[in-house]
Design brief:
Elements (H helix, E strand, L loop, with lengths): L1 H19 L2 E3 L29 E3 L3 H17 L2 H4 L2
Antiparallel strand pairs: 1-2
Helix pairs in contact: 1-2
Bound molecules: zinc ion.
Length: 85
């Protein structure tokens, strides 16, 4: 059971990490796949959609914590008898 829950959690966290590494244009919201959050501002190229170099970096650790909590809650629902302990 624990291994299965851990596996699901890691799968979700991997997905979150993937999403968290996205960079989007701050002006129009278009994805900028050629950049990462670690790309320095001076290395940015203008948004292909609107030409802005303002970016929204998708690194939000609090979102990851929320997902973690949700997964833990679902895991407990799956094992009601153990929760009573
Ligand atoms: Zn844009």
């Amino acid at each position: 059971m624990e291994l299965e829950a851990t596996s699901k959690m890691l799968s979700i966290l991997d997905h979150m990490t993937e999403q968290a590494s996205k960079v989007t244009c701050s002006a129009c919201g278009a994805a900028v796949p050629s950049e990462t959050p670690s790309t320095p501002p001076e290395a940015r190229k203008p948004c292909p959609n609107c030409g802005s170099v303002a970016r929204v970096l998708g690194v939000r650790l609090t979102d990851g914590v929320d997902v973690h909590d949700t997964v833990a809650t679902k895991a407990r629902h799956g094992e009601p008898e153990q929760v009573k302990l």
